[in-house]
Design brief:
single chain; mainly alpha; lipoprotein; YnbE
Length: 60
């Protein structure tokens, strides 16, 4: 009789196992990359170089 009760308990617990499903999303994944990059470059020069650039504008 005890084997029958044990078998009945095992069968009743077997129905309680969790079920896990993995499904792909219905819509594609989109990544919005709207990025604005701004930069400034400051150059510090010697007074001699600055005067040379002012006097000789044909260098560049």
């Amino acid at each position: 009789m005890s084997y029958g009760v044990a078998a009945l308990m095992v069968l009743s617990l077997a129905g309680c196992t969790p079920r896990i499903e993995v499904a792909a999303p219905k819509e594609p994944i989109t990544i919005n990359m709207n990025v604005k990059i701004e930069h400034e470059i400051h150059v510090k020069v010697d007074k001699d170089v600055e005067s040379l650039l002012k006097n000789r504008s044909d260098l560049f």
